[in-house]
Design a protein that fits this description.
This protein is an alpha+beta fold and about 500 residues long. The protein has 18 helices and 6 strands.
Amino acid sequence: MSRQLLSFEQALRWTADFAARQARTLAFDRPVPYLAKVALLAAVYFSAAKLALLAAIPPGYATAVWPPSGIALASVLLLGSRIWPGIWLGASLVNVTVQSSLVAATLMGAGNTLEALVGAALVRALIGLPGPFRRGEHVVKFVAIAAASATIAATVAAAPLAFVHSLESPELLWNWWTWWQGDTVGIIIVTPLILGWAARANPAWTPRKIAEGFLLVCLLSGVMYAVFGAGMTPYIPSVPLTFAILPFVIWAAFRFQQREVATVNALVCAMAVGFTLEGSGPFAQGSLNESLLLLLAFLCTVVTTGLVLNAVIRDHGRAVEATQRLLQELRKQTIRDSLTSLYNRRFLQDYLKRELIRARRERAPLALIMMDLDRFKHINDSAGHQAGDQVLVQVGALLKRHVRGSDIACRYGGEEFAVVLPKTTLESARRRSAEICSAIRREAELLHGVTASLGVALCPAHATDAEALLHCADHALYEAKREGRNQVRIFVDARGSAGDSAE
């Protein structure tokens, strides 16, 4: 809680002194692009506001449909707080056109600007950097921020409405409520739409995804016409049918990114408002403003449901991916030696059993090499354990270079290693062992003079099960140790077969 309060205070402090911080760069830091952005934002805000005011209630300032609030908040989040003059200029100009004094228009414009700045500060403090919502609670916080920041513009506008136009308390309250709800719904619908399309990390659509999106839009448009179209009213009870919109929003939330969900939401709102303005649909009751307020209250619930569901699904997907990566890492740790990255003894025991079963089924030979580093303890005692670990790492890398893709090299324990060679004859295993022994001998300087002794056993000539084969290879290894180390020995059974060495 204290961390959130600290970040909130930092965001408010940053918002409060934005004018002082940006004054130095206003005239010197690329003024032409900056002024162009301000002018473009003012033009977009003015155009959207003029269209929205077509549905305004007397005296002509408050309307239930107010997309400019969402445009303003998205602009501040994406372009920074220094873009505020564009919001103020567009809002002031549109209010001047509504038979208002210059002072009242600039005051209302300041309220719209402050609404966007405070909303952006709250988003940065409570949610983070602008972009798609990553968690369901972020959507809930965003809706609360929209409702809280919208009170600023509505409250600031109440003063000129009361004193300039002399509105009575009921009319003033009605204007305040209309202003507040229009700004709130505008932020909830328009801001995620702009932020979603401004995000760069959106995957490209496949042809199948394009076809699915086209089908979704077509079916949704048909349902919207059935619910709100005047031609279907005599045949279909449109009030219960309004909930038929939800399955399509849920479809979009499950199958698409936030950008597409926000686009579907905007399409639903645009079509519903258009039909309601024409006087058709289940919400076209009473005055136009009452109809729009009731409609947008319902649509705000639908939009919020879609955004929350999409964020929760994406968050769950990321959690599943993280869990899978963790499981893969854990599995790797259970079968790999952390020092040499070779397979460990546990993996060798399971793998050797499976390969022996395959070897018997295919009637193919399988060779096992056991290798132990000579006088390795002397390295640890004289040069330290770190030097000993480095020798083990180098030996592990050397084994990787001398095994085929079908072979596996393992660290059996301590300074002892094992190599499994499927479909390998005794002569091939002898040759491979001699190559490994010679390679270690050639790396004497890098390996601090360490050499290796190797023992070789073959299935089925010497043993047919894993434990016996390991015992045979280990017996041959210690025979190489007794004979002077730094050599290869083939297992010799009680009958004396296969018993020569390879230096």
